[in-house]
Every structure is written in structure tokens, then in C-alpha cells.
Design brief:
TIM Barrel; two-stranded antiparallel ribbon; 10 strands; binds zinc ion; 7 helices
Length: about 240
């Protein structure tokens, strides 16, 4: 029996680089078509479309997590996942205050759309969500756990906005027990740049509907609730 097929890194139309078709219901329906068992919505520096996504997912019985792809002070992307909307939105408020007050340019990035569960645009976000926050990567793992969440560095094998491209390494004292790789077939887990025992995850980082579920990845056979996901991510061997 196969494990739980996941995709914990998906962007909606709220992300400046997210396609306008990435509405809550389109994401949910594409996830079902792709055979995913659980998804997470992780827009850049925002959880504001998580309420709509979670409601749309609940309507069709698809487990979904509220999340965010945080951009740290060092311009490192980190995927953060939360057990419920309230903690995600608490984190969202904190992050918003730590984003520079630079306005979106819709003619370049498109509108940053906050939607309801029927895909109606409620409001557009004017602060550009793509920028780095002033939140450091040092201590981030425990900071996110203070919001009852878990986090892992995103696409560490990419050449930009990744822990390895910016810092050159990941060490155990950074507190991360998992990391996401974008190209799992090319990545060597025994790399000396990554701590031994680190859980390697892979997600689509979808910005377009057709990307959702493009990376085939499974959790071990467990119930798809948040504590089991968090245990999986935190359950490294070091
Ligand atoms: Zn990223
Ligand atoms: Zn992303």
C-alpha cells in the first residue's frame, strides 16, 4: 500500500509570481486530479489565502494545511506549516509587520489577490509580498514552533533564494531537521553540506496549475493530521 502523497509547497494567485488561475478551488481540484492526499498553501510571506483554500479543500474532503514560504533577511526561502488557521494568521500578522513597506507593481507582478472560498477576489494586497523580511534564519525553527508550526528550508538545491546558495551549508545548530530539494533525482543526501539524518522532502513549488503534484513524493503510511506531519518533519535522527 502506498503512503500519503503530499505537496506542501503550492502558491496561489496571491503570490506575485503565482498565476491568476491559482484560485483556491482550482488548486484543490487540480490536487485531486493529480492524486494528492494532502496539500499545503504556501504563498510568499502571506497566509491570507489560507482561509479560502482550507474551506475549499474541506468542501471536497481534501486534507490541507495552512502555510507560508517565508523569505528571511538573508533572502532564504523557508516553508512554514501550521496546525490551524489561527496560528498561521498570527504568524502572518507578525511577518507582514516585518516586510518592507514597498508597494506591488501590478503591471510587473500582476495583482496579489486575496480570495474567498468561491474564488471571488475580496481585496488585492498592495504591499509587495516578494521581498525579504527582516526575520533572520538563525533561530527561525524555534520561532516558528512558538506559533505551533514547523518549517524547513525550501529548494535548497536551487541557485537562488536557497540556504545552500546563500550560506553554502546547513548545520544541525540551525535547528532544521528537514529540507526541501527541487531536483531529488540529482540531489545526493550524503552531501557534506547537509547534516546527516536530515529529512529530505520534495514538493512542486507550483506557481501554475499544471505544476501541482508534479513531484511524486509520499509520507510514510500515517494519518494525514498535522501532528503526524510535524512528527515526520521533526523526526530526524540527529
Ligand atoms: Zn522559493
Ligand atoms: Zn515557492
Amino acid at each position: 500500500m502506498r503512503g500519503i502523497r503530499y505537496d506542501f509547497h503550492i502558491h496561489s494567485a496571491l503570490s506575485p509570481c503565482g498565476d491568476a488561475d491559482m484560485t483556491p478551488n482550482n488548486i484543490v481540484n487540480m490536487a485531486r486530479v493529480a492524486g494528492l492526499d494532502i496539500i499545503a498553501l504556501t504563498d510568499h510571506n502571506s497566509c491570507q489565502n489560507c482561509p479560502a483554500l482550507l474551506e475549499a479543500a474541506q468542501r471536497v474532503g481534501l486534507p490541507a494545511l495552512a502555510g507560508m514560504e517565508l523569505c528571511t533577511r538573508e533572502e532564504i526561502h523557508v516553508v512554514c506549516l501550521f496546525p490551524c488557521l489561527c496560528h498561521a494568521l498570527d504568524f502572518d500578522r507578525y511577518v507582514y509587520e516585518h516586510l518592507p513597506d514597498i508597494q506591488n507593481k501590478p503591471e510587473i507582478y500582476g495583482e496579489q489577490c486575496i480570495m474567498d472560498a468561491d474564488d471571488n477576489i475580496i481585496v488585492t494586497e498592495h504591499k509587495l509580498l516578494l521581498n525579504a523580511t527582516d526575520i533572520p534564519i538563525d533561530g527561525l525553527s524555534s520561532f516558528v514552533s512558538g506559533f505551533h508550526g514547523v518549517c524547513f528550508p525550501a529548494h535548497i538545491d536551487k541557485t537562488s533564494y536557497s540556504a545552500l546558495s546563500v550560506l553554502g551549508f546547513l548545520t544541525p545548530d540551525m535547528g532544521f531537521t528537514a529540507a526541501e530539494v527541487a531536483y531529488p533525482t540529482r540531489f545526493t543526501p550524503a552531501s557534506p553540506l547537509v547534516p546527516e539524518g536530515m529529512r529530505i522532502l520534495t514538493n512542486s513549488d507550483a506557481h501554475y496549475l499544471w505544476d501541482i503534484g508534479c513531484k511524486e513524493a509520499y509520507l510514510e503510511e500515517r494519518l494525514p493530521d498535522f501532528s503526524s506531519i510535524a512528527d515526520y518533519i521533526l523526526g530526524s535522527s540527529f
